[in-house]
User: What shape does this take?
Amino acid sequence: MSLVAVWVIVALCAGILEVVVPAFGFVFVTLAALLAALLALFAFGLTTQIVVFAASALLFLLVLRRFFVHRLRAGPGVPSRTEAITGKLAEVTDPIDPVRGSGRVNVEGHDWAARSSVAIPAGARVRIDGADGIVLLVSPLQKGL
Assistant: This one.
């Protein structure tokens, strides 16, 4: 078996490990093995291939991992269902009782459990201020809104 094939097999194994084990480190071993396979293809010696493999894997890991992890975590992520409706108006379908912590509202055709610091009768309009898990935190609209 040629050294090119050995390095490609090492790269494939590291690539499979990257998919199976979410460590985000084996991808750099894969790149280093492919670089070593390229050196083997151009008939560089085994010692050169091993040194370049080890050095490039370490360099890729130290330099590129931080960059890629930062890029992957840079976004705000996927908003929750409750974040998407915060600030919207809803109609109280079951009276909201702050003592019992009960009540329900209808938001854009969807029924939600709701809580408020004040009692709110059924039929009243409320604003969604946030959520505590899947329970909406609401406040009554002031007159004239």
Q: What stands out?
A: The radius of gyration is 29 Å. Residues 3-73 form one domain.
